[in-house]
């Protein structure tokens, strides 16, 4: 697992931009990213950067209370899931994450450790506080992310 120090929000935003570039170039129909970390480590901020850098021009809302926010644009469907406020296994089922879509589907799950049944992921990022910065650790299962430039953040 590779680690990278994200010194500030700009570095976290750049990481999101790098991930977005990979997602846009990918030929995969479905990509799933899991984000782990304590409260305030930047999971939602990173997701906002990924979605905005993929072409979404409007506000990217936190799904903390809604559990899921969907962004459908440019033949992309982003499903941004936040499981912090749930302990019910059935909650994830209502989003029908495995449904067929005509374009590319990108699933980003915050707090995936709350899932009752584990889901396969293409990349897992663990974010943790490190002094006044963030440390990001990467567990990459899909080679589309092998070219992620972690030095350019």
Summing up helix and strand content along with how strands pair, one would put the structural category as: alpha/beta
Shape: globular
Give the helix level as a range of percent: 10-25%
Average pLDDT across residues?
Answer: 90
Strand percentage: 25-35%
Rg, Å, rounded? 14 Å
How would you describe this structure to a colleague?
It is a single chain. The protein is of the alpha/beta class and 153 residues long. Helix content is 22%, strand content 32%. The chain is built from 3 helices and 7 strands. It has helices spanning 9-25, 43-53, 89-93; strands at residues 2-6, 30-37, 68-73, 76-82, 104-110, 123-130, 133-140. It has a 7-stranded mixed sheet with strand order 1-7-6-2-5-4-3, with helices on one face. α1 (9-25) packs across α2 (43-53). It is globular. The two termini are 17 Å apart. The model has no long low-confidence stretch (mean pLDDT 90).
List keywords for this structure.
single chain; 153 residues; alpha/beta; seven-stranded mixed sheet; 3 helices
